[in-house]
Amino acid sequence: MNDYILKEIKALRLKDSVKSAQKIFRNYPITHFPVIENDKLLGSFAESDIQTIENKEGELVAYAYLLNSFFADEKATVLELLKIFADNDTNIIPVLNKDKNYIGYYDLCDVLDVFSTSPFMIEESETLIVEKLINDYSMGKVAQIVEASGGKLLGLYISNKTTDFVQITLKIVSEEINEIIQTFRRYDYKIISSHENDIYLEDLKNRSDYLQKYLEM
């Protein structure tokens, strides 16, 4: 991800004026921007905070209490970055090197572009969402079910979680997705996603249609 570290906008300093910070936020579609001192990150100001300050000639040091503390390591993965973006409701993440010095920032659009062009996203596949009791599920078992049924697992992640249940989203390459679906059902996984060629649901529909016709006789 080092190729995506940006330095287009010069980081702010506490001696800078409020007006200069407000100008940056007016000129760029960003939610936060970092403040540094001697190459060390002090935090990031939020656009929503800076734009409400009326004393435009005042220095940012007077508003240091508004700084938000979040950053990424230069070796952070795309998934780690997406979590930081989401947790802090930001579209800019300051980046620190191994010496904890500020070296630039990541932009959300760039990171989303990287993620959207990964094989996980672009390879033609089926998206399957299964649900299981939280104490009964196993990632290893989920992968085993897919592969034992002739599928190729591109990736999986926990997409929803409650105190009792967990939902797992899978990206699967398979010409027999229905076989995989039925195997999951045999192991007491509930199928959350909809699939056109789901034989089980089609059978239920046919039975329901038959019953409805019988009742209307």
Topology of this protein?
Layout: H1 18-27, E1 32-37, E2 40-46, H2 47-50, E3 72-73, H3 78-87, E4 92-96, E5 102-107, H4 108-116, H5 119-122, E6 126-133, H6 139-148, E7 152-161, E8 165-173, H7 177-186, E9 190-191, H8 199-216
Helix pairs in contact: 3-4
Characterize the structure shown.
- The chain is an alpha+beta fold and 217 residues long.
- It has two domains: 2-115, CBS-domain, CATH 3.10.580; 119-193, Alpha-Beta Plaits, CATH 3.30.70.260.
- The model is unreliable at 199-211 (pLDDT under 50).
- It has helices at 18-27, 47-50, 78-87, 108-116, 119-122, 139-148, 177-186, 199-216; strands at residues 32-37, 40-46, 72-73, 92-96, 102-107, 126-133, 152-161, 165-173, 190-191.
- Strands 7-8-6-9 form a four-stranded antiparallel sheet, with helices on one face. A three-stranded mixed sheet has the order 3-4-5.
- Strand 1 and strand 2 (40-46) form a beta hairpin.
- Helix 3 packs across helix 4.
Quickly describe the structure.
The protein is built from eight helices and nine strands.
> What is Rg?
25 Å
Average pLDDT, all residues? 89
Sheet-strand content, in percent, reads 25-35%
- End-to-end separation: 67 Å
User: Which second-level CATH architecture of the largest domain applies?
Assistant: Roll
Any key phrases for this structure?
2 domains; Alpha-Beta Plaits; four-stranded antiparallel β-sheet; 9 strands; alpha+beta; three-stranded mixed β-sheet; 35% helix; 217 residues; CBS-domain
